[in-house]
């Protein structure tokens, strides 16, 4: 062991979180897994580990990617490290034992392969008691429609991270309208380049800024749907 090697378990919480941001930046998957386990072992809530250690770290990666300091291979390594940390947290976030409150089909739109945010939303929705059918990335309109019908879903969730792919959400919503299916589903959209105005303009029920907002919005819409039926 090198003299200057950092022992994660010897760091206090604040130092460890900062170190995890660095490790995420460097794409160090095993260190991220270790850090997540240490924080959980210290009694941290899984949601806090997710937001304070992982999502906050990924925000730094995103800024440097934007500024041309990091490139695709480095960002992929960071994304893999993030996913490894999320895999540990997933069952814990889903462990609420809440009754199933509704079913959501979620996927990233055609032309877009970003899936970290989508996965996070799916995890948080499961944690809140929703059944989640994740159809992955690069989804054409046909895939959304056939899955919604086959699964008898209540909610359609779409994710897009590129300004070039976000308009595809409108293609999906317009097709739902053309087929007379629009009112059968609550349509929620999200992704970094979107905003509320865009959500309204394409005819979605709501734009969700982050995973926590997605959960709350889904709960509100499901409650309204049940009230209407009562
Ligand atoms: Co991409 N990429 N990328 N990338 N990438 C962005 C999005 C970018 C903003 C980076 C930048 O320039 N700053 C930029 C887009 C610019 C633009 O369109 N204006 C960009 C680019 C340009 C590209 C490529 C074109 C790069 C290239 O090849 N030259 C390429 C495109 C590939 C493609 O999709 N066709 C590309 C590739 C990649 C990687 C493969 C390297 C990797 C993806 C790995 C993966 O996802 N498996 C990657 C990554 C990691 C990023 C950044 C750095 C991080 C995205 C992320 O995971 N964020 C990103 C920069 C950034 O966003 N700051 C960037 C963390 C995640 C938790 O947040 O996804 O926003 P986010 O999700 C949030 C909310 O948005 C919301 O909740 C989530 C959790 O709170 N949300 C939803 C998201 N989806 C939702 C769905 C909902 C509700 C809420 O449904 C109900």
From TrEMBL:
Residue span, B12-binding N-terminal domain: 7-101
CDD domains xrefs: corrinoid_protein_B12-BD (cd02070)
UniProtKB keywords: Cobalt, Metal-binding, Methyltransferase, Transferase
SUPFAM superfamilies, per the entry: Cobalamin (vitamin B12)-binding domain, Methionine synthase domain
SMART domains: B12-binding_2 (SM01018)
B12-binding domain residues: 101-230
Gene Ontology cellular-component annotations: cytosol
Ranges in a coiled coil: none
GO molecular function: cobalamin binding; metal ion binding; methionine synthase activity
Pfam family, one: B12-binding_2
Gene3D superfamilies: Cobalamin-binding domain (3.40.50.280), Methionine synthase domain (1.10.1240.10)
GO biological process: homocysteine metabolic process; methylation; tetrahydrofolate metabolic process
Family indicated by similarity: Belongs to the methylamine corrinoid protein family.
Name by which UniProt lists this protein: 5-methyltetrahydrofolate--homocysteine methyltransferase
Source organism (scientific name): Albidovulum denitrificans
